[in-house]
Amino acid sequence: MSIVPKETIEVIAQSIGINTLSPDVALAVAPDVEYRMRQIMQEAIKCMRHSKRTILTADDVDVALNLKNVEPIYGFASGGPLRFKRAVGHRDLFYIDDKDVDLKDVIEASLPKAPLDTAVTCHWLAIEGVQPAIPENAPVEVISAPSDIKKHEHKDDDLPVDIKLPVKHVLSRELQLYFDKVAELTLSESDSALFKEALVSLSTDSGLHPLVPYFTCFIADEVSRGLNNFPLLFALMRVVSSLLLNPHIHIEPYLHQLMPSVVTCLVAKRLGSRLADNHWELRDFTANLVASICKRFGHVYSNLQSRLTKTLLNAFLDPKKAMTQHYGAIQGLGALGPNVVRLLLLPNLEIYMRLLDSEMILEKQKNEMKRHEAWRVYGALLRAAGQCIYDRLKMFPTIPTPSLQSVWKTNAKVLTSSSRKRKAGPDQSEQQPPLKKAATDVEDGVVLMNSSPVHKPEETETQASSVDSIIGSSSSAQMKIETSLDGELRSNRDDTQALKTSAALTQVWKDELNSGRILVSLFDLFGEGILSFIQSPEMYMFL
């Protein structure tokens, strides 16, 4: 017996426009409809179980219809349960009450609010007992509220909201006096001996960690307000350097407040208001300070150096910036290391030198101050490029230059060979006296002995003299042999050195190292000034 009655088949037939369906046909079609429905529902239940769910949804039915190559049902969503109503006059007939919607009303209706994406953000609740004044925490106005633990407010929907007050940071009286004294010395007595002692105290004392947030705020405020006060800016940077040197202070959480002030003292357009203010020295000091920060805390903040180099590179490549700003950017990039110079400065050096040449020539730039600034920038570029090429050449094997002592030895060898006596010919040897002839024969490697067993006294004396001459001649021959061996060894050593030089030059001129081409390009830009940065062994290798 089918659970699908024939009346359901007749209603479905009428909904699709078939009004003359006989009862016998409806009764015959009902079992097949039931079979198809069971098949679809079984597939939908499988999809539900594979999805680790216990509630069947319209999406499961759509997937089952797709598996059977049947067009899915439109107009149904899985947002909520379907509401069925019983048909009037039919006890077992149900239908879904679908409301007719006018498309005009749908088009003219206001768009609903876009749902918010789920996101997770991090912020500091408290840093060393101090709750920072950021939007995620309590507003600044709450700080001046009464000293109650909680304060109730009401929103528009009359729901009470609890606002927690920031944690109070309690400083001892001694630390307050210490901070006030250091701040006073920094502002007014930065040239005194007491200020130098205060810097030493800042770099060594172990109980100053509670004052770090106060010093960071003090430095940020004074730098923003005192760009025209050169002694104050230099004193503030010295305070930052002393704080960084203190091994007992954990300054990492406060770097985001210190770095803007430090970078400002590096690439600001004007530092100080007087011509006597040596802002070049301040920029050099700040560049070394920035490099030490990146070296020490680069592993903690992975994007610290990348953000800093991006800021400095933008200042360097902007032609609208002043020469003082370009100088600070070059010094900062140069202090970060030869690799930063090779990757960021050298590719843009040729284009920048075209801009700089017009500022250095008297005919094109009449302002003496701007010409002085341009020459300062030129010196900074030369120093950065020279240190870069020197660092690149240090990685190659050292080729010693020929020393003066070896040249003297060579000259002595030449003198020795030139002082040798010419060998006597056959005719001349016959005319020589016996002593000289014996010596000459020894030089030729033949020793002539008298075969007569009887010797006269005169002959004995002559033979003794000949023996002495033979000994002297043999020692002279031995010295000649040693000299020739020394020359062969030195020749082999020179050949080995030549091979090493050739191998080193091959390594230098490789495309991936590119050191030789860098040196040639730098020589074209700076001339012989770049050669002063290359030590004699490396210079000899290229020569």
TrEMBL record:
GO terms for biological process: pollen tube growth; RNA polymerase II preinitiation complex assembly. This is TATA box binding protein associated factor (TAF) histone-like fold domain-containing protein. GO terms for cellular component: SAGA complex; SLIK (SAGA-like) complex; transcription factor TFIID complex. Belongs to the TAF6 family. One of its GO terms (molecular function) is protein heterodimerization activity. Its main location: nucleus. Keywords: Activator, Nucleus, Transcription, Transcription regulation. The keyword Transcription regulation applies. It is found in: Nucleus. Residues 2-68 form the TATA box binding protein associated factor (TAF) histone-like fold domain. It holds the Pfam family TAF. Transmembrane segments: none annotated. Residues 417-441 are annotated as: Disordered. The keyword Membrane does not apply. PANTHER family: TRANSCRIPTION INITIATION FACTOR TFIID SUBUNIT 6. InterPro entries: ARM-type_fold (IPR016024), Histone-fold (IPR009072), TAF6 (IPR037796), TAF6_C (IPR011442), TAF6_C_sf (IPR046344), TAF_TATA-bd_Histone-like_dom (IPR004823).
